[in-house]
Design goal:
The protein is globular and about 70 Å long. α9 runs antiparallel to α10 and α15 runs antiparallel to α16. Among the domains are: 59 residues, no CATH class; 130 residues, no CATH class. A hairpin with a 5-residue loop joins β1 and β2. The protein has a two-stranded antiparallel sheet with strand order 1-2. The chain has 514 residues and is mostly helical. Helices cover 54% and strands 1% of the residues. It has 19 helices and two strands.
């Protein structure tokens, strides 16, 4: 018996009419071929034409015939080294001090080959061993990130202040930290010279908060759960708990989509997660987890997906773009859920302070020079006047949105494309913004989106150190990221095309021919 392949040739069928199983060489991930929605097919066709239950697939082979024990030892070595680097980075503070200087970038650069090697080795371990390795690495690396205060950001101190203000009954969108009426709320760990001056660790202390309502709610939850404990450690620990949950969510999500759950190792060993989401305790980690959850449920529950995107946008605004990815099947349902979540989140604050809920957002955009076109590093090569660059950025983003929508890309594939395009166009200096696209890319087996965070680190440190070449460094970094992403996406598509599933054809159809 035979089946008809995409090129029109006949291929033998198994004894029950099912397609012959693919060899490990045809699918090194052991995850099957991609289905029409971008997920991996569960397995070969059964006798009745339905998909047979997914088989566990071939056991992973050690690299180059190396014994399994040697592979395990290699994983352990990479984990120990990455943990040591995580602890070392936690002891170096650049923001407001410049203490770590370029040494921080050197440590991050040393982590990258360990990251890649560790992932490649873990993916050669049997399933349960790989799971244990991922858990151990994730816990150890994040535990080490708690060894010191935030090294590259002082946002955490604003989180703590906003929580304190809310629990006192004051809306954080109403007044800045240095407002005299809020002086009784000051704590020594946030205002070290409490008795003598207004000196504070809180960034931009004269302006109102910028963080959206669900971020504010999260700040209150952390302060209440930790009993209002002073210091950075409670905030970092809360961030670590969220990020460890994200590790599990990625592994479960990959398995449910038919992909290799060992791909979650890219996140478990990631310096982006450990440094930016745990040591620096950025609230973006919560937004990333909500975004990943939204993409995972988008196909079957678009209303829930729209609500989750709304929740993510109410933590940090930029995930709002993901509504385009999750609303393709039921736009009214997903859009309505998104709007409902955003409205309910903002309503109490609007009733309390009116238009002040905008907070410092306009000032932040001006500070980052977006209103003047000064931050669009890649678009600036067009030599257009700076005041036209925001217009060009809007046109490019709109074009990407329309192409993604028209092409009907599934959410798992559309999400990293949309957020990746946003980052390439806006070229932000903050590396933690790229954590979202790095995590979402893994759901499409596209690990290369993490390069957006990697190239932003030198740019960010250069700005912290007032290096005059910072913009040039950032422009080259984002250019390299663009080349890597385009090349990797092209190769990924070509590989996906070669692995397209071959559909079984009824014997009588083969016999009759055209």
């Amino acid at each position: 018996m035979t089946r008809r392949s995409p090129d029109g040739s006949d291929q033998p069928l198994g004894p029950e009419g099912a397609g012959a199983a693919a060899s490990p060489e045809d699918d090194p991930d052991g995850a099957g071929s991609p289905g029409p929605d971008g997920a991996r097919a569960a397995g070969p066709l059964g006798p009745d034409g339905a998909s047979a239950p997914a088989s566990p697939g071939p056991r992973p082979k050690p690299l180059g015939g190396v014994p399994l024990g040697a592979v395990t030892a290699g994983v352990a070595l990479c984990t120990v080294a990455a943990t040591a680097l995580s602890a070392a980075l936690a002891q170096r503070t650049v923001v407001n001090q410049g203490g770590g200087r370029w040494e921080v970038v050197a440590l991050l650069a040393a982590w990258i080959p360990l990251w890649v090697a560790g992932v490649l080795l873990i993916r050669r371990l049997p399933g349960r061993w790989a799971l244990v390795a991922c858990v151990v690495a994730a816990v150890a690396i994040r535990g080490a990130a708690l060894a010191g205060p935030p090294g590259l950001s002082d946002d955490l101190y604003r989180y703590a202040w906003d929580a304190k203000v809310q629990l006192s009954g004051v809306d954080p969108y109403e007044r800045g930290p240095l407002d005299p009426t809020l002086a009784p709320l000051r704590e020594r760990w946030l205002f070290p010279d409490l008795a003598a001056s207004d000196a504070t660790r809180i960034n931009r202390p004269t302006v109102r908060t910028i963080y959206p309502p669900l971020a504010q709610a999260w700040f209150v939850v952390v302060r209440v759960v930790t009993g209002g404990a002073a210091g950075e450690r409670p905030w970092q620990a809360a961030a670590a708990v969220v990020d460890l949950g994200l590790c599990g969510l990625l592994a479960v999500g990959l398995r449910r989509m038919g992909s290799d759950p060992r791909l979650a190792a890219w996140w478990c060993l990631s310096p982006v997660a450990a440094v930016e989401l745990v040591n620096n305790a950025h609230v973006d980690g919560l937004a990333v987890a909500l975004s990943v959850a939204a993409v995972l449920v988008a196909r079957r529950r678009p209303g829930l997906a729209g609500g989750l995107v709304g929740a993510a946008a109410m933590v940090k605004l930029y995930p709002a773009l993901l509504l385009v990815a999750v609303a393709r099947r039921r736009p009214l349902l997903a859009g309505g859920a998104f709007a409902a979540v955003c409205t309910l989140a903002y309503l109490p604050h609007v009733l309390a302070v009116g238009v002040k809920v905008i907070g410092y957002l306009p000032g932040y955009l001006e500070e980052e020079k977006y209103n003047q076109g000064g931050r669009f590093l890649l678009l600036s090569v067009t030599r257009l006047p700076a005041d036209l660059l925001p217009v060009l950025a809007g046109i490019v983003l709109l074009a990407v949105i329309l192409v993604v929508w028209w092409a009907g890309l599934p959410a798992v594939r559309a999400a990293p494309v949309l957020l990746g395009a946003l980052l390439l166009v806006a070229s932000p200096v903050q590396p933690w913004y790229a954590a979202s696209v790095a995590a979402l890319g893994l759901l499409d087996r596209a690990w290369w989106w993490a390069v957006l965070a990697v190239v932003a680190w030198p740019y960010y440190v250069a700005l912290l150190l007032d290096d005059p070449g910072a913009d040039g460094l950032g422009r080259w970094g984002y250019a390299v990221a663009l080349v890597v992403i385009v090349a990797a996406e092209a190769a990924h598509r070509a590989t996906r095309g070669r692995r397209a599933p071959v559909r079984a054809v009824a014997p009588e159809a083969v016999a009759s021919g055209p």
